[in-house]
Design a protein that fits this description.
The protein has 236 residues and is an alpha+beta fold. It contains 7 helices and 9 strands. Strands 1, 2, 3, 4 and 5 form a 5-stranded mixed β-sheet that branches. Helix 2 (54-70) crosses helix 6. It comes from Pseudonocardia lutea. Keywords: Hydrolase. This is Peptidyl-tRNA hydrolase.
Amino acid sequence: MSAQPEQPETPREPVLAPLGARYSGAPAVIPPEADGVVRAMPVILRIERELPARTALLEAAAQAALAVCVDPRAQGEWYEALRNWVDGRIRKIARRARGAHWTAVQELPGVTVEVDGAEVRALVPGPVDAVPKTVSRLQIGGTDLPADEPAPVPAGTPVIVLNPAVEMTVGKAAAQVGHASMILAAVRGWTGAPRFAVRRDPALWEELLARDDVVCVRDAGFTEVDPGTITCAAAD
């Protein structure tokens, strides 16, 4: 009896597909977690004694959050964890690490991105009450960095503009730009994670809001800002 040929595995839907459908057309209605489990993506900011540049760190955060979702492992071993998270609210919790603690988080599933010397590692999301000790011991606060003056946005670079009227810590802003990169990629159908330009410029903010192809992040209001606040906008 001859062996039966192997059947090709049915391709899985991209993990960002529900997010793209949710943010296309009418304003998004963010569903609660169907199983009642609150999930979040840990976003680890490397903040050593020699501080990274604020803009570079936020650009690394935007790219890292998306990179986890389009990594080849997102169609394999990470798939269920990511889909369970994307099907609900795409919460992110930013924490800071340095030295041995930064080295330790490299062992956890995720992707590290470096931009102009600033490094961020986004981890595979999971329940907030089951965070590995390697992560839970990291501080959430203390992520403030001085403002800087980045160069003009390079041509052809997708841009995320933080709302200039809203004050946010670096940790909060890192989570928001990670939301923005994911939503923009989902709506556009991207399969990769490009570098983003992150800015906080009033003129650029008004320019983006006037476009009909911009995506906006409206915060749920759990921390720092009021519910429904537009924290940032993104376009390519």
